[in-house]
Design brief:
Helices cover about 50% and strands about 10% of the residues. It is of the alpha+beta class. It has two domains: about 80 residues, no CATH class; about 110 residues, no CATH class. Strands 1, 2, 3, 4 and 5 form a five-stranded mixed β-sheet that branches. About 25% of the residues are buried. It comes from Cryobacterium levicorallinum. InterPro entries: DUF4191. It holds the Pfam family DUF4191. This is DUF4191 domain-containing protein.
């Protein structure tokens, strides 16, 4: 008897590196109309500088001029990739800025090495959806409020008292992400954490984080949103 062979569905191929970069560029261009000119300038400036050096340096021959131009082209491509990455991150987070769970998305996907954070807030206001998140790193404990300061100050003070009671002399930094003029923009949050002066060792970071996690939370709090899957808000 002939056996019917079941065809196993093929896994969809992952897009190549160039296709991924093109998709990132297309997404960024929808939210950043100046990205094309910025990338063009980022490429041309290093090329023009290298060309000028090749022409001005005495004793240059054809070979050295070619090396200078190649170096300028490579530097231009590198500058384009760096700028595209930063502008793409900003565009991605601009889609979820102001939404509940936006800070949690940053803590889940963009924390730098040496920092530990959770997409789950440690305190939340069920009526207003304002929340407080916590991150622990070499700079100590950081409490990040999501929402207007007038509504999150009380939650921050309560969480700070808990940390002082359990964490002892660990430094506590407060950062606000919200509509206030002096608030930190969502796309700059991860870099803001790295600017805090280190006060703890790696072992102390782990110990403090374990102690704070032992407090737990009594509220069923939703997870953060994914900036790469979020839909832009309608006007």
């Amino acid at each position: 008897m002939a056996r019917s062979k079941e065809k196993t569905p093929k896994k969809p191929k992952k897009p190549g590196r160039l296709k991924q970069m093109w998709q990132v560029f297309q997404m960024t261009r929808r939210y950043d109309s100046n990205i094309v000119w910025i990338l063009v300038l980022a490429f041309l400036i290093p090329v023009l500088i290298s060309l000028a050096l090749a022409l001005l340096i005495p004793g240059s021959n054809v070979f050295t001029m070619v090396l200078w131009i190649v170096a300028g082209v490579l530097a231009g491509i590198l500058a384009m990739l760096i700028i595209l990455g930063r502008r793409a991150e900003k565009a991605a987070y601009s889609q979820i800025e102001g939404q509940p769970g936006a800070v949690g998305a940053v803590l889940r996907s963009s924390l730098k090495r040496g920092w530990v954070g959770s997409e789950m807030p440690v305190a939340v206001n069920g009526k207003t959806q304002d929340a407080v998140y916590r991150a622990v790193g070499r700079g100590g404990v950081v409490l990040i409020s999501e929402g207007p300061k007038t509504r999150t100050t009380r939650m921050l003070e309560e969480e700070k008292r808990k940390i002082v009671r359990i964490g002892g002399n660990v430094g506590v930094t407060v950062i606000s992400v919200g509509p206030d003029d002096d608030a930190v923009p969502l796309h700059k949050l991860a870099r803001r954490l790295t600017r805090i002066k280190p006060t703890l060792t790696k072992a102390e970071v782990l110990a403090v984080n374990n102690r704070l996690n032992s407090m737990g939370t009594k509220l069923p709090i939703p997870k953060g949103v994914d900036p790469m899957k979020a839909r832009p808000q309608r006007g």
